[in-house]
Write a sequence for this structure.
């Protein structure tokens, strides 16, 4: 009798232990969120991922970071990637849409299947997404325009170079800039030239701009590749009277910032975007209310302030 | 005997027909000079030369390869990965000039693999170099995790961004290499073998020429030159971009054909290739100065290729 | 016999050249009319006009009594005029029946865009039966032998209800048994009333098959004769414009010591050759029918193909040859069967071609001494009497005979000590052939070892001092000049 009782007691303890373990692991077993961007190949997107991963670690979730192979202009590729994530059955998606209209159908499909979607970096023309977390590109561009206007003494020629036509982020940054400068009748804005997201091409385009417009006063570039290419073209010719302004940051921008040829770049906070994205998804899944749009903010980095501590943190949120 | 043509072309007329290749270039130049007051400025002409160096240097290698009847689609990728190798080595503390040498040799090594696969394993050049195009680019991305290799030593700047007496260093390199390769093609037994293989591979082999070795060498040279261009590009921005050089081989091949080399192999000159590279650069530069949309530039280059090769075909038929 | 075709006063001009200067040709029902003339006489130009590929500048064509214009090849075929080219133009991936009917396919009665394969196959089978080609009509053409493909081409003539069939060098690639079969088919065609224009250089065959013969020379019509009323010498004289004495000149060299001894030469393809020797002062001929392995032998000896066993002694020393570079280094030279395919770089100039085997000799540290190359080329142009405006002329513009001389110059430049000639006079007209034979003599007189491979029986007999016969990748016999006859050689070649 006693032996049977012992066996039963051991069995019960083991069973309870297993149950407890199962429930514990159940709650420790996190969600998988997909982060779909334009490409995995720049500091910017990798930083965004880092922010998301940091938030995910805190909540015990996992991030699946992916993008279409052919880069930011591959809209169909991004749709395919979305489909794959839907098929995988992820718990939520953060999407940096290659096109704010073309990605709507697949996004709404995901939402219908019960996968919440947060738009990051740029918006999405659908009211079914739970939130949109981005830099206020238009507002930041206007702020940059004000600085440019001030630096050139409110008169003169300014060139605009962009990475690719038709990209929403680029358009927002360009339109915001041009609109603001309309207020200054003595500033002439040149037609936009494109550099295909290639630093070398930006260099060549800038060379030609200089030839065609020897009285150029400033150059405004839509992202870090443009800034670096334009600055290098100027440095090659030892021109220090023309300054370059733009958006985004990478290790290549550091030397041109140091030299002062790049007089200002709007640095976004992709880290925060990613972090906030994961938080929003978790909040939504757990039934909380979240805001429809959030501004992740940005900082105007200049040769004067880039070494300050809090500015540095924005440049290198993950340490160097 | 019937058929004693008195009008047949011979090699002596080569010089004359070469001058004809200058025509589209001169024509474009005139058009742009009229349309844009900034075109003919000394500054801009130097810029044009500068903008043609990358394509020209790659095109020397493509000229040789195409004359032997092959093609090399991997030069842009080899360029990129060589630049990455140079950058990584400099960051690791290796002296700049050693790193540069290593990068160029690495390019040559990849060219050697191309040559080996083609001449010893009998894969056709199109397929073999298509494979290498992907492999080399992939290696570049893997080595860098897709990020640029930044913060390279200032000492590297001279080769890509420096100048001697006002002439940019890459332009000097372009011309020196042009003279070197023109000499090789015209005046060395290697050059003769290249032409012979392209004209009739089997006849060359049956004349005692070791065809496989020559084929190997033209691809090695391609890799070395691509490595050199990779160095120049990295030097200009003091950063090695893993996506540097994408599509450059297409422009190089276009330059070769615009310059009059036959796509069937067996004929072509370095001078023609230089003209072809300059033509493309003039076209891009001129359209840029006129603020023409970049995409129209691409259409224009495509049209020039077709027209140039068509005109060349007419010339040959006579 | 009824006259079915008459071409009169045909003139054809190309820029700078008058290819046909007002020629005449007529053809009777059921006759074989041979067309003779040296290369360049205008035979193929006239045939191109007859088959619609060219248009004449002047002249008329009367076909079955009516004047006609043959605007294009399709029209010629619809009219019943067809040609079997030397390089039989069939599509190797299609079936026999498809090739027979290509362009004139039998269509389904109700749906004219659908082909009626059943009908085509059955009609093809009937025709094949008639001409004696025993293969199913559904056989893939590429799998047939050259002779069989020729029969398919002729089957097409019948299927298309041809009234005129032009045969261009039909026996060039056939073995003698196959030639007999061909003549049998020609007989059948004649009985159907089909007129046949027969172009060939092989005068011996015309003896058997031709009814009449017309001779062209330099774009001019010379004459037409009943074949029975003329002979070979007369025809050659008419073709050449002068009496050719002594087609095969003698040489004055005497047989000396052995310079090449092949102990054993063996390849994976089945070539197995033992105990062959070549002496100074003798021209060694190698005879055999198509497929006997003569070219394979030459290529294996020259290192162009890999040999499993290569036991060869050259001037007393054993040599190793694994590739063409080795062979050239040891002083071997090889003149290929097909100049255009692998003999010359047609796109390069003469000087380049002549220097091609001796690049090392003309260069120092890899840099070419152009002046020496040019002087050398000039020397050979005069020594070998090569007709060309300059050494910079592209090789493709030279006539066949001159091209052959350029290749000879290439090997002499290299100081080759043993030359292997594979079909040395192929595609070269009668006048130029003699020059080649004289060159062979001068070579052997100068101490160069000369091997001549030829499928032209009279040529190999006329030129060689000693003849080896090949059959099925082996040497089957040997005959000296004194004891050789055509019958003996043929016998050895077939056994």
């Amino acid at each position: 009798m006693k032996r049977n009782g012992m066996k039963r007691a051991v069995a019960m303890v083991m069973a309870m232990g297993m149950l407890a373990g199962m429930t514990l692991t159940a709650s420790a077993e996190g969600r998988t969120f997909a982060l779909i961007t334009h490409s995995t190949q720049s500091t910017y997107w990798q930083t965004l991922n880092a922010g998301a991963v940091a938030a995910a670690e805190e909540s015990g979730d996992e991030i699946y970071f992916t993008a279409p192979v052919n880069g930011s202009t591959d809209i169909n590729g991004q749709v395919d990637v979305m489909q794959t994530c839907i098929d995988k059955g992820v718990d939520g998606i953060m999407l940096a849409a290659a096109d704010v209209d073309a990605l709507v159908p697949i996004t709404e499909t995901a939402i219908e299947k019960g996968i919440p979607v947060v738009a990051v970096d740029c918006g999405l023309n659908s009211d079914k997404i739970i939130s949109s977390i981005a830099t206020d590109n238009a507002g930041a561009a206007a702020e940059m325009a004000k600085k440019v206007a001030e630096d050139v003494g409110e008169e003169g020629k300014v060139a605009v170079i962009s990475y690719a036509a038709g990209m929403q982020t680029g358009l927002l940054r360009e339109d915001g800039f041009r609109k603001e400068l309309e207020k200054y009748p003595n500033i002439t804005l040149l037609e936009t030239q494109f550099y295909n997201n290639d630093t070398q091409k930006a260099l060549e385009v800038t060379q030609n701009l200089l030839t065609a417009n020897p009285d150029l006063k400033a150059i405004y570039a839509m992202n870090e590749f443009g800034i670096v290419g334009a600055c290098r073209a100027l440095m090659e010719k030892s021109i220090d009277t023309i300054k370059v302004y733009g958006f985004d940051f990478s290790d290549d921008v550091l030397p041109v910032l140091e030299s002062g040829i790049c007089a200002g770049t709007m640095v976004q906070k992709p880290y925060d975007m990613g972090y906030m994205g994961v938080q929003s998804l978790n909040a939504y899944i757990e039934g909380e209310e979240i805001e429809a749009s959030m501004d992740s903010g940005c900082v105007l980095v200049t040769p004067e302030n880039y070494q300050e501590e809090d500015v540095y943190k924005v440049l290198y949120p993950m340490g160097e | 005997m019937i058929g004693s043509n008195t009008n047949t072309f011979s090699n002596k007329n080569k010089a004359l027909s070469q001058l004809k290749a200058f025509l589209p270039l001169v024509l474009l130049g005139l058009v742009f000079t009229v349309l844009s007051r900034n075109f003919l400025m000394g500054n801009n002409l130097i810029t044009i030369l500068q903008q043609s160096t990358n394509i020209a240097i790659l095109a020397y290698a493509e000229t040789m390869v195409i004359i032997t009847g092959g093609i090399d689609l991997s030069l842009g990728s080899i360029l990129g990965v060589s630049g990455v190798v140079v950058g990584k080595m400099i960051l690791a503390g290796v002296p700049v000039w050693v790193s540069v040498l290593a990068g160029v040799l690495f390019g040559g090594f990849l060219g050697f693999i191309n040559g080996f696969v083609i001449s010893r394993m009998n894969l056709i050049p199109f397929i073999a170099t298509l494979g290498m195009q992907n492999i080399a680019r992939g290696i570049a991305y893997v080595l860098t995790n897709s990020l640029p290799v930044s913060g390279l030593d200032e000492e590297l700047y001279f080769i890509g961004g420096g100048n001697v007496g006002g002439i940019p260093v890459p332009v000097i390199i372009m011309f020196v290499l042009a003279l070197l390769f023109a000499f090789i093609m015209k005046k060395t037994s290697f050059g003769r073998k290249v032409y012979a293989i392209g004209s009739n591979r089997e006849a060359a082999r049956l004349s005692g020429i070791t065809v496989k070795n020559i084929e190997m060498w033209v691809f090695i040279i391609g890799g070395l030159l691509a490595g050199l261009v990779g160095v120049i590009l990295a030097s200009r921005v003091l950063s090695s971009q893993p996506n540097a050089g994408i599509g450059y081989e297409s422009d190089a091949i276009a330059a070769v054909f615009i310059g009059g080399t036959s796509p069937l192999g067996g004929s072509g000159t370095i001078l023609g290739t230089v003209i072809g590279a300059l033509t493309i650069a003039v076209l891009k530069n001129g359209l840029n100065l006129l603020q023409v949309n970049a995409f129209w530039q691409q259409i224009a280059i495509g049209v020039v290729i077709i027209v140039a090769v068509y005109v060349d075909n007419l010339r040959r038929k006579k | 016999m009824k006259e079915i075709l008459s071409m009169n006063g045909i003139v054809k001009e190309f820029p700078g050249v008058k290819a046909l200067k007002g020629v005449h040709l007529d053809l009777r029902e059921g006759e074989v009319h041979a067309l003779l003339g040296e290369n360049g006489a205008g035979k193929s130009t006239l045939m191109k006009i007859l088959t619609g590929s060219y248009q004449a500048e002047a002249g008329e064509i009367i076909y079955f009594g009516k004047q006609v214009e043959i605007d294009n090849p399709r029209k010629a075929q619809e009219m019943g005029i067809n040609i079997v080219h030397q390089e039989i133009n069939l599509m190797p991936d299609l079936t026999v029946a498809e090739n027979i009917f290509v362009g004139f396919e039998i269509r389904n009665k109700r749906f004219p865009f659908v082909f009626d394969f059943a009908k085509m196959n059955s009609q093809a089978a009937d025709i094949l039966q008639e001409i004696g080609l025993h293969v199913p009509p559904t056989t893939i053409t590429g799998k047939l032998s050259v002779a069989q493909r020729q029969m398919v081409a002729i089957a097409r003539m019948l299927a298309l209800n041809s009234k005129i069939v032009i045969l261009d060098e039909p026996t060039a690639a056939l073995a003698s048994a196959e030639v007999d079969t061909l003549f049998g088919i020609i007989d059948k065609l004649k009985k159907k009333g089909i007129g046949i224009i027969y172009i060939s250089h092989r005068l011996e065959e015309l003896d058997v098959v031709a009814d009449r013969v017309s001779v062209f020379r330099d774009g001019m019509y010379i004459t037409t004769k009943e074949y029975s009323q003329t002979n070979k010498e007369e025809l050659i004289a008419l073709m050449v414009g002068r009496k050719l004495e002594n087609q095969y000149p003698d040489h004055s060299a005497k047989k000396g010591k052995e310079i090449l001894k092949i102990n054993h030469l063996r390849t994976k393809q089945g070539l197995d050759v033992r105990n062959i020797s070549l002496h100074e002062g003798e021209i060694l001929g190698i005879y055999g029918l198509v497929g006997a392995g003569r070219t394979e032998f030459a290529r294996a000896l020259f290192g162009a193909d890999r040999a499993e066993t290569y036991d060869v002694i050259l001037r007393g020393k054993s040599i190793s040859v694994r590739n063409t570079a080795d062979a050239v280094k040891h002083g071997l030279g090889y003149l290929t069967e097909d100049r255009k395919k692998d003999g010359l770089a047609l796109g390069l100039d003469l000087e380049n071609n002549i220097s091609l085997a001796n690049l090392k000799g003309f260069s120092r540290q890899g840099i070419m001494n152009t002046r020496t190359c040019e002087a050398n080329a000039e020397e050979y142009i005069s020594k070998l009497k090569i007709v060309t405006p300059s050494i910079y002329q592209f090789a493709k513009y030279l006539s066949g005979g001159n091209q052959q001389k350029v290749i000879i110059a290439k090997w002499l430049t290299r100081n080759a000590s043993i030359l292997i000639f594979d079909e040395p006079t192929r595609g070269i007209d009668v006048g130029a052939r003699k020059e080649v034979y004289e060159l062979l003599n001068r070579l052997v007189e100068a101490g160069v070892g000369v091997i001549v491979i030829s499928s032209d029986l009279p040529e190999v007999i006329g030129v060689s001092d000693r003849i080896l016969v090949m059959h099925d990748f082996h040497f089957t016999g040997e005959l000296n000049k004194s004891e050789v006859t055509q019958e003996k050689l043929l016998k050895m070649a077939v056994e």
